[in-house]
Amino acid sequence: MRYSHKLSDAVHILAYIDICHDDDLSSTAIAASVESNPALVRRLMGALRRGGLLATQQGSATPKLARRPAAITLLDIYRAVEDDGNLLHVDDKTNPHCIVGGNIQDTLRVAYAEVQSAAEVQMKTITLARLIGDILTRERAKQGSAGE
Amino acid sequence: MRYSHKLSDAVHILAYIDICHDDDLSSTAIAASVESNPALVRRLMGALRRGGLLATQQGSATPKLARRPAAITLLDIYRAVEDDGNLLHVDDKTNPHCIVGGNIQDTLRVAYAEVQSAAEVQMKTITLARLIGDILTRERAKQGSAGE
DNA sequence: CATTCATGTAACAATTAAAGTAACATCAAA
DNA sequence: TTTGATGTTACTTTAATTGTTACATGAATG
To answer: Which residues form a coiled coil (chains A, B) (predicted)?
Structure first.
C-alpha cells in the first residue's frame, strides 16, 4: 500500500483549527492547506470527533478542539485516525507443523507489543500544544530571517 | 499497500537456520516453514547478508548466521530488510504558503524521529537469542501439555 | 421558507508498496 | 557433465491509502 499520512494530516487539521481559528475553517479551506481534498479532511475530522478530540457541527464550518491542545497527545490522535494502530505486523500465515512456524507468531506478538509500547510512551509525551508551538516558532524564525 | 511482513519473515528465516541447522536449509525448505515462496526467502536472505547478519554461498544450501544470536538484535534485522525504516510518515505535500502547511513537515519530522528512536531503543534490547529461546520454550510447553 | 452552502458518509476509481510468480545466470557437488 | 542450489531481475497479483464523485442532512441568510 502507500504509506499512510493520516496521522500527519490529522495533526495538520487540528493545528490549523487552533492557529487559524479566525480564518475560514471549512473542509475546503483546510484541504487547501493540506493540499488534499475536502472529503479526506472530513473523513479525518469524523475520526477525530469519534476519538473525542474535535467538536464539529453538521452544516456549519465551525470545528473546535474538544480539549486544550496541552491535553491532546500524538498518541490520542494516532489512535483516533489509524484503524490498524500496529507499527509492526506479524505474518499470520506460517506453517503450524514446524517448530519455528508454529511458535514464532506468539513470540513476535510479544516482542512487537514491547516495541509498540515504547513508541506509544513517547507519543504520549508529545502534545498538540508542543507541535503548535513548534510550528509558530518556525514561522517566526522565517520572518526574522526574511531577506537575509 | 499491504502491511509488510518482511521483518517477521526475516526473523523467521534466521531462527529457522539456527534451530533447524541439521535439517534442509534450502530456500525451498525455509519457504515451506514461512508458507511463502523460495524467491521471497532468497530476497530476504540477500538483504540479511548485505546487513552482515547472514553468511550464504551461492549454489550451496548452507546458510549460517554471521554472528551469535545474542549479538543480533531486532533492530539489526529491521534495518537490514526494511528499505524504508520509518514507522511514521510525514505528508510531504502541504501548502508552503500557509503557516501550518509551511512548517508542519519539519515539526513532525522532529516528533516522529523521537518516536522512531524510542521504538529502536526497544528493538535493540530484543535479541535473536531471546526470540529463539522463546520459540523453543513455547514448543516445550506444547509438548508438555500434549493430550491434556 | 427557499436557496445556498456546509458537513457526514458511502461507493468507486486510482495509486502504490508488498508479496507472488517465473525465468535465468551463476556456482557447488557428486 | 549433470543436477540442483543461490542470486537477481522482471512481471503480475494483492491490498491499504488516497482521490473522486455523489448525495443526504443540517445551518444560515435573504
So the answer is: none
Which residues on A lie below 8 Å from B91 (Cβ)?
Answer: 5, 8-9, 12, 34
Q: What is the mean pLDDT of residues B36-61?
A: 97
CATH fold label, B6-144: Arc Repressor Mutant, subunit A (1.10.10)
B25 touches strand D (CB under 7 A): yes
Round to whole Å and give the CA distance between B3 and A135: 31
Residues in chain A: 148
DSSP code of A84? Answer: S
The 10 Å Cβ neighbour count of residue B127 is 18
SS3 assignment, position B102:
coil
The grid cell for A121 is 510512551
- Answer yes or no: is A39 CB < 7 A from strand C: yes
Which one is the CATH code of A6-85+127-144: 3.40.50.970, 1.10.10.10, 3.40.50.720, 1.20.810.10? 1.10.10.10
Q: CA separation (Å) from A138 to A21, B94, B137?
A: 19, 15, 52
Q: Would the pLDDT of B148 be above 80?
A: no
Distance of alpha carbon A127 from its chain centroid, rounded? 11
Is the CB of B60 within 7 Å of strand C? yes
Q: Which pLDDT does position A146 carry in this prediction?
A: 67
- What single DSSP character describes residue B37? -
Task: List the Cα angle B14/A100/B13 in 5-degree steps.
Answer: 20
- Tens digits of per-residue pLDDT, A53-90? 999 999 999 999 999 999 999 999 999 999 989 999 99
pLDDT at A132 over 90: yes
The distance of B11 to chain A (nearest Cα, Å) reads 9
